[in-house]
Amino acid sequence: MPLTMLSVGKVAVINGCRAKDTTRKYLEGLGIVPGVPIIIISEMGGNLIVSVKGSRLALSKGVAGQLTVQV
Amino acid sequence: MTYTFALVGNPNSGKTTMFNEITGSTQYVGNWPGVTVEKKEGKARKFKEDIEIVDLPGIYSLSPYTMEEIIARDYILDEKPDVVINIVDATNIERNLYLTTQLIELGIPVIVALNMMDVIKSREDRIDVEKLSAFLGVPVLEASASKGIGIQELVEKALEAAQSRASANSCERCKMLDDAIEQSLDKAEPFVALPARQKGYNSRWVALKLLEGDEKLQEKLKVPVTLMEDIKSFRKELEQKYDNDMETLIADNRYRFISDVVAKTVKKNNKGNILTLSDKIDKVVTNRILAIPIFLILMFAIFQVSFGALGSFTVDWLDSFINETVGGVIKAWLEAGGAAEWLRALIIDGILAGMGSMLVFVPQIMIVFFFLSLLEDSGYMARAAFIMDRILRKLGLSGKSFIPMLIGFGCSVPAVMAARTLENEKDRRLTIILTPFMSCGARLPVYALFAAAFFEQNQGVVIFSIYMLGIVIAVLSGILLKKFVLKGEVAPFVMELPPYRFPTIKGIYIHMLDRSKDFVKKAGTVIFAAAVVIWFLQSFSFSLQMVEDAGESILGFIGKAIVPAFAPLGLDDWRASVALLTGLVAKEVVVATLGILSGVGAAGEDSAELAAALQTYFTPLKAYAYMAFTLLYMPCIAAFGAIKREMNSWKWTFFTISYQTGTAWFVAFLIYQGGRLLGLE
Questions:
Q1: Over the stretch B518-574, which tens digit does the pLDDT of each residue have?
Q2: Which of B142, B247, B487, B628 registers the highest number of CB atoms within 10 A of its CB?
Q3: Confidence bin at B105 (pLDDT 50/70/90)
Q4: Judged by CB atoms within 8 Å, which residues 18-37 of A form the interface with B?
Q5: What are the sequence ranges of the domains in chain A?
């Protein structure tokens, strides 16, 4: 399911990214790759703050919608 | 012997703090050629060897997709620093090591500085540094840049590595990738050995990159098509074997290697997913109800201090200091020395007045930068951008445009400079173009003068409407320019939120001083030249005679020549157009010029005499059009200098000022002609 559907505080595992190449590469550098656990820390009008590999990332709704996760 | 060390690391890894610790006051800031990314260089202190330190842009990986990544990679590959010092945030080691693995692959001497070890120790986490070093195949040193610990050792180690290049050259590259990929690399490596050697690149790295399909490198090395065919076949083989695309495959491999290393070397005291203090603060600060109010209160407070009492106090104080105290001394001195009248006029009315009009803003700019550093170093800036992103995205801007816009209400110069925080070049350019539409403090005297002279009953409303006009024009321009000129999506908002930290006084001090120094030095040269030129133009006639009546000066002549351009705006008096020209030195000069040209002397904005004089050649409608023009046309020379520097392109600088001046003309035209149609005067 898309990351946007995940509820705050639940752990899920990233399993895909449908963003275009440049964004995907950038996300890879930030640790967003398949198989990595992700938690939503807070949500604000669709924009998210997530925890990945111990760091906190802000993702806009658009980017979050392109990531799929598995609970 | 001169050595060059490059600092490489993730944003927020403490790289800048480390750079400041190593170089102290020897650093200087410039731009990377052709781009508006800051380049910082300095010398290592306390070493007798000549060690040049280059601070590369903060990056998350070496894949050439962002401007920063390309700059950092090209620098390492082509400038070949003696040692790359990789700053790794030990509290976030897994993510930070991703870049490290890519640096090691380059086959150049790398030294890892495990930064923020003080935090690790206070958390009672443990990192086995020796083991980590063995796994990575490069030296690893503990450090804490903010506490000044481990800096000396780090530079010593780097120096050692530089002096014995061979041994540091990670002889046996650690195996990070799957056997199948390593085997493909074994096969591909001989093919690329020749082009790699010509550029002096590590051939195994080149093989890996080409296998990954790195087009930038392919172009750079001019790899023959036939060779690429072979490489592509290796690639296809691997992709079929793993049923995944090559890039993801390699990223996955690197992360697996890192997870494995981290599992064997890092012991965390805290287990489970307990929310950190930062997370708790974020729960409040980015809360969907509280976020905006907290944000507004903070901004209001900063605005109040910078441009309110404290800020204007410094401006007024410095103004009287420069013009009265210093000016008085120089004047007396010139008179005593029997200097020629023209020389006195040049120094007092030209240079001192011109330079003074800029220098008075220096303390205010320092206050602004103080707060900016505070916001940035504490970690709140990233949150502010996150909060504002949703609103600004609708206007074709990113959340990161907000801060420059806000500062624009004070002074366009630091505002334009603050646009540096936007890493996407298009977003940054758009922000720079729009920021001067936020009415700066220097324009207020002009509104005050005209509002008092023509709208006595509704002064407040009229001035407020001018401020609002600026915002509306910025919004419309944002939508328009995004659609037709700076096309393309706003960069997707992905941003690391660093943990909240107490900013260090030293960090803020350096930050603040750095930027203010920059401002004085560079804007000062432009202002100086402009002040002399304008003074000359308004004091001399074409026959190079000094004139009493500015109307007969070169500037007066130009003013009369350009009157036709302003006539459709209702501004058919040459004095009005000349005042706009001199307003380019600083917008408040418009008031002084109108005073001189109206024959009442250099009057203030509250002069009743000047108001009466203006009523002879302005009507309320004309006055409003004039205010709108003053608001929107190209900003003063100091801001122009800042725009040029930040755009780093004459083309974009001229586009910016043409767009602003064009908009000003068009809007004033609509106001005047529209007003006349409505029967106003």
A1: 667 655 666 677 677 777 887 888 888 888 777 788 888 888 899 999 999 999 888
A2: B628
A3: confident
A4: 19, 21-23, 25-31, 33-36
A5: 3-70
Ranking B219-223, B281-285, B334-338, B506-510 by mean pLDDT, the lowest is: B506-510
pLDDT in tens, A7-42: 888 889 998 888 887 788 888 889 898 889 999 988
Is there a contact between A57 and B95 if contact means CB atoms under 8 Å apart?
Answer: no
Distance CA B94, CA A54 (A): 8
Pick from B91, B286, B287 the residue to mutate for testing the A interface (most A CBs within 10 Å): B286
Q: Is B501 left (phi over 0), alpha (psi -120 to 50) or beta?
A: beta
Unique residue bearing structure tokens 């195994």? B204
Q: Using the Cα atoms of residue B535, residue B538, residue B539 and residue B544 in order, give the sign of their dihedral.
A: positive
DSSP A59: E
Within 8 A of A59 by CB-CB distance, chain B residues are: 493-494
For residue A71, give both structure tokens.
């609970």
A25/B279 Cβ within 8 A: no
Q: What is the CATH number of domain A3-70?
A: 2.30.30.90
**B397-415 pLDDT per residue, tens:** 888 788 788 778 777 887 8
CA nearest neighbour of B299 among B396, B389, B207, B403: B403
For A:46-65, CB contacts with B below 8 A are 46-47, 49, 51-63
Minimal Cβ distance to B279: which of A27, A41, A62 = A41
Kindly report the three-state secondary structure assignment for every residue of B603-621: CCCCCHHHHHHHCCCCCHH
Q: How confident is the model at residue B658 (pLDDT cuts 50, 70, 90)?
A: very high
pLDDT tens for each residue of B415-445: 898 787 776 788 889 999 999 999 887 788 8
CA dihedral (B450, B453, B458, B461) in degrees, to 10, reads 10
Q: Could A56 and B273 be called an inter-chain contact, meaning their C-beta atoms sit closer than 8 Å?
A: no
Report the candidate in B6, B20, B117, B113 with the shortest Cα–Cα distance to residue B62: B6
